[in-house]
Recover the amino acids of this structure.
């Protein structure tokens, strides 16, 4: 099936078996292997990408369902020569070990910070209308869809908190 | 290499006198930028022309035979290329450091979930569909034992069963005793990257991109499995998405990919689905442990007993060394060990992070907490009182052991003296309590070789060690930079390729100490060559920021290596490994909240203090420790393999059913290191760290539950149902 996707701002034409997930389309048809497959069942978050600005598990959706959609992957954040502030913070806080869950964590965090800015509450928010600057508990809760078996959770949260601070946070 | 350095004598602490100042620092991982940009390639991410895709097919009986397996049902499916099930298929992954093929049972099935074939097609989707449509007929044995508790085939492991003195008499005479049974369920490594292999043959030579921990051994295992010469096999694993034991030995997907690629004469990639990783990669055995402690009125131990039952498939050699730490942790003259192995038909067991200590210390450190309670002695003080002067069984000295310092410093930093009396602190619906446990992990030195080349551009470190997240790229870079007086940016470390000198592999927490020493020794040889060129004594040589000084001469390093200087070195265990008891030590402190109605347990604070000789990089070492402590939380509260009681097959075979800790389960963990050098362990004075921090961690959490609400959980994990039942039994 022919499908057109915009990936990291570039329009891509694909001709795919309808069974190909968005994740496999990225990894194995567009050869953008930054996005990872940890479970292929929506249970780990390693495959998190943004579709039209929202974070989703790309293993749980078929590529052909995304005709015309805007997809953003880890490759859009920064390059090894010029990582973005969140990526820099992950490095300096050691928010990873093996690095396999990391692209998913980064994409999830990127979208999560936007969600918070838009005022979305979480399960641990004290107020439904104004979560304010994200506390550690808020970040932990909002990032719990992304598993990390190396268990770099404290570093991940510190990196996100630091970036939130750098960006002026959100009151 | 035949002039490997043998660790027979303590070595000078050279890394304390080199002047670069990079060793031990919080240096960022040199591989970090690639990882955060998604630019670090893992095994399944290499591509090859004309690559075909394979999907494994599993057995659905627990014991029996494949009766009919042919491609009739799938031959006509689009893209189908082949079905392979010759006698080379692996029953299960090789055990760590096997260096030879694991069992290749042909058509015999030994457990439900065993890989019996691989289906190959043009695309992954076609192969997956064909593998699902494939009709396989099995003959199932009528009687099959799948439960270690009821199994009749119980073997006594003589090598692990021994006694010193008379434990029964010590128990009878003791003022205080503990006699408790602890159980731990099966666990899995669940590394985030599923096992994946891409095999390509070229003129009879196999090149395999794989996700493995110990390439020097994996190469031999793969070659032996395929019946080819090891020289014809090359394995590449520059990045590995976690291992934790699951990638120690060659696995079913590697051999399947290699066989299919050979038959089809084109590259084949086989990636295990997450469920297949659960099915056919080794799990950690469940254990049943009886702990007996006998003590005098001051809580000093006169006897220790640790008996356990584990399970394993018939013919599989590995046996979880549950009581490892019990042998050397605490004193007491009368000691007894007895190990039983239930031979059952479940996915076979093997090494999962800290085999032995990870589960054995849940039992031991829980029992110590019980002893503290019956003696009326503070649990930290009880442990301090029972630290023996020398190994209580062999009389050997400890190479270095800062257990007391870890306990004391941890207690003070955690605020242990404010610990409430059991069941006395309540905040709303939550009971609050604190727990402690010691940590220990055996240290060892494994043969390792490395090559270092110094040229005008900087240095290159080469060895087939892997970095499975442990920080190998960082610490080897630091060792070379420190020894050669270069900024880390001038050192390039190349890993994960069997064409490079053979390393120890990443396993058993010996990677950094063993392979780090090989790098150190190769760089030391370069230092000697530089001193010669400079015309000074090597002892007076200083190398710093690319400048060499010695005698009265000073020269830029690059002038001394216009011709690159290349040295290889190797290390192997020696006399000191036998003469000293070598282990790393630590202490865990946890504060938990237990919900009075739901039984939910939240870990609110956790602190670990560790002593593991020289810390090569504080940042990566801390991450290792945090990782282990989080695994401790997992084993205390949620991790549990479930098996179908009829077939033994794993029913929690994905990440929705096998629960590992997520962000919300984990507090911001505090980790501290005690300054230590171990002169007996290796020439860089470091010790095991990767697995140290899981050892005992879960016990601190469960001991904290007891302190919070008076419920003693001895059947891990402490899930809400057990906590609620405990509260009800106490009338709460
Ligand atoms: S790979 Fe998509 S959630 Fe795990
Ligand atoms: S860094 Fe290894 S799984 Fe997260």
């Amino acid at each position: 099936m022919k499908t057109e996707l915009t990936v990291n701002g570039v329009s891509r034409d694909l001709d795919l078996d309808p069974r190909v997930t968005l994740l496999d389309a990225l990894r194995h048809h567009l050869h953008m292997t930054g996005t990872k497959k940890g479970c292929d069942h929506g249970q780990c978050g390693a495959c998190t990408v943004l579709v039209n600005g929202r974070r989703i598990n790309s293993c749980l959706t078929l590529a052909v369902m995304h005709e015309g959609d805007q997809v953003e992957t880890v490759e859009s954040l920064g390059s090894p020569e010029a990582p973005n502030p969140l990526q820099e913070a992950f490095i300096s806080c050691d928010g990873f070990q093996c690095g396999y869950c990391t692209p998913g964590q980064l994409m999830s965090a990127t979208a999560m910070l936007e969600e918070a800015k838009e005022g979305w509450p979480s399960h641990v928010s004290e107020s439904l209308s104004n979560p304010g600057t994200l506390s550690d508990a808020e970040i932990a809760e909002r990032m719990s869809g992304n598993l990390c078996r190396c268990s770099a959770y404290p570093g991940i949260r510190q990196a996100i908190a630091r970036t939130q601070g750098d960006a002026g946070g959100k009151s | 290499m035949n002039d490997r350095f043998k660790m027979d004598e303590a070595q000078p602490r050279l890394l304390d006198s080199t002047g670069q100042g990079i060793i031990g620092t919080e240096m960022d991982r040199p591989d970090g930028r690639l990882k955060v940009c998604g630019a670090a390639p893992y095994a399944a991410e290499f591509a090859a022309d004309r690559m075909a895709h394979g999907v494994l097919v599993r057995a659905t009986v627990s014991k029996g035979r494949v009766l009919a397996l042919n491609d009739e049902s799938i031959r006509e499916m689009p893209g189908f290329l082949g079905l392979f099930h010759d006698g080379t298929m692996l029953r299960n992954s090789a055990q760590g450091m096997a260096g030879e093929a694991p069992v290749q049972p042909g058509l015999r099935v030994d457990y439900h979930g065993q890989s019996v074939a691989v289906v190959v097609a043009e695309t992954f989707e076609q192969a997956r569909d064909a593998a699902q449509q494939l009709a396989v007929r099995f003959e199932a044995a009528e009687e099959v034992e799948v439960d270690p508790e009821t199994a009749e085939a119980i073997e006594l492991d003589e090598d692990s069963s021994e006694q010193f003195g008379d434990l029964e008499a010590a128990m009878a005479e003791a003022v205080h005793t503990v006699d408790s049974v602890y159980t731990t369920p099966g666990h899995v490594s669940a590394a985030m990257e599923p096992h994946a292999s891409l095999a390509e043959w070229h003129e009879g030579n196999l090149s395999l991109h794989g996700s493995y921990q110990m390439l020097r051994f994996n190469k031999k295992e793969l070659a032996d499995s395929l019946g080819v010469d090891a020289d014809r096999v090359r394995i590449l694993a520059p990045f590995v998405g976690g291992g934790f034991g699951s990638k120690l030995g060659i696995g079913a997907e590697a051999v399947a990919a290699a066989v299919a690629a050979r038959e089809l004469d084109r590259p084949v990639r086989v990636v295990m689905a997450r469920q297949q990783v659960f099915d056919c990669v080794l799990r950690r055995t469940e254990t049943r442990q009886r702990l007996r402690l006998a003590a005098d009125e001051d809580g000093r131990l006169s006897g220790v007993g640790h008996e356990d039952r584990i399970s394993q498939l018939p013919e599989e050699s590995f046996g979880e060394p549950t009581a490892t730490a019990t042998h050397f942790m605490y004193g007491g003259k009368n000691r007894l060990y007895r190990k039983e192995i239930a031979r059952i038909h479940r996915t076979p067991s093997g090494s999962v992070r800290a085999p032995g200590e990870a589960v054995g210390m849940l039992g031991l450190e829980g029992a110590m907490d019980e002893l503290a309670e019956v003696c009326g002695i503070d649990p930290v003080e009880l442990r301090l009182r029972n630290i023996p002067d020398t190994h209580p069984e062999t009389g050997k000295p400890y190479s270095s052991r800062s257990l007391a310092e870890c306990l004391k410093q941890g207690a003070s930093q955690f605020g242990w003296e404010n610990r409430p009396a059991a069941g006395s602190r309540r905040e709303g619906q939550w009971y609050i309590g604190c727990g402690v446990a010691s940590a220990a992990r055996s240290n060892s030195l494994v043969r390792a070789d490395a090559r270092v080349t110094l040229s005008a551009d900087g240095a290159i470190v080469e060895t087939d060690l892997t970095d499975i997240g442990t920080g190998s790229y960082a610490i080897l870079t630091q060792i070379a930079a420190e020894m050669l007086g270069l900024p880390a940016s001038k050192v390039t470390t190349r890993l994960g390729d069997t064409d490079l000198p053979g390393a120890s592999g990443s396993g058993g927490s010996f990677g950094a100490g063993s392979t780090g020493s090989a790098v150190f020794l190769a760089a030391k040889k370069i230092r000697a060559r530089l001193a010669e060129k400079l015309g000074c004594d090597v002892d007076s040589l200083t190398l710093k920021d690319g400048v060499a000084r010695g005698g009265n001469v000073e020269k830029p390093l690059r002038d001394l290596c216009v011709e690159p200087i290349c040295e290889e070195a190797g290390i192997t265990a020696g006399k000191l490994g036998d003469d000293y008891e070598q282990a790393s030590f630590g202490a865990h402190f946890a504060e938990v909240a237990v919900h009075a109605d739901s039984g939910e347990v939240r870990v609110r604070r956790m602190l670990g203090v560790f002593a593991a000789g020289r810390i090569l990089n504080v940042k990566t070492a801390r991450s290792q420790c945090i990782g282990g402590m989080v695994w401790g939380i997992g084993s205390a509260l949620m991790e549990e393999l479930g098996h179908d009681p009829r077939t033994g097959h794993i029913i929690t075979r994905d990440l929705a059913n096998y629960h590992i800790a997520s962000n919300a389960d984990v507090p911001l963990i505090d980790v501290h290191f005690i300054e230590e050098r171990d002169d007996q362990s290796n020439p860089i004075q470091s010790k095991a760290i990767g697995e140290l921090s899981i050892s005992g961690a879960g016990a601190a959490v469960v001991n904290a539950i007891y302190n919070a609400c008076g419920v003693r959980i001895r059947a891990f994990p402490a899930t809400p149902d057990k906590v609620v039942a405990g509260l009800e039994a106490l009338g709460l």
Summary: Residues 22 and 63 of chain A are 4 Å apart (CA to CA). Chain A has two domains: 2-76, 85-169.
